[in-house]
Amino acid sequence: MSSTSHDVEHALAYPEPPASPLWHRHGAPARPLTDTEKKRNCELLALAQYTPRPRSPRSTKPRTEAR
To answer: pLDDT tens track of the chain, all 67 residues?
Structure first.
């Protein structure tokens, strides 16, 4: 089925709704991070990415009995 000019005009008859006011920031902009804060954030990120997370203890029961 091909698109007609009527279909295009109909689609343009309903404009996109305005953006939510929650998308806009009000107030003072955030202050830039200091070099010390940037370094600390990088260290914490690296630690979080490469440190294994503790595993929850496994049940000794088979899965069918644990439910």
So the answer is: 555 555 555 566 778 888 887 777 777 888 999 999 999 999 999 998 887 777 777 666 666 655 5
Classify residue 64 by its DSSP letter.
H
Contact present, 33 and 41 (Cβ < 8 Å): yes
Alpha-carbon distance of 41 to 35, in angstroms, equals 10
DSSP 3-state helix, strand, coil percentages of the chain (rounded to 5)?
45, 0, 55
| Count of CA atoms in the C-beta half-sphere (13 A) of 8 | 4
CA distance 43 to 50: 11
With H, G, I as helix, E, B as strand and everything else as coil, classify residue 24: coil
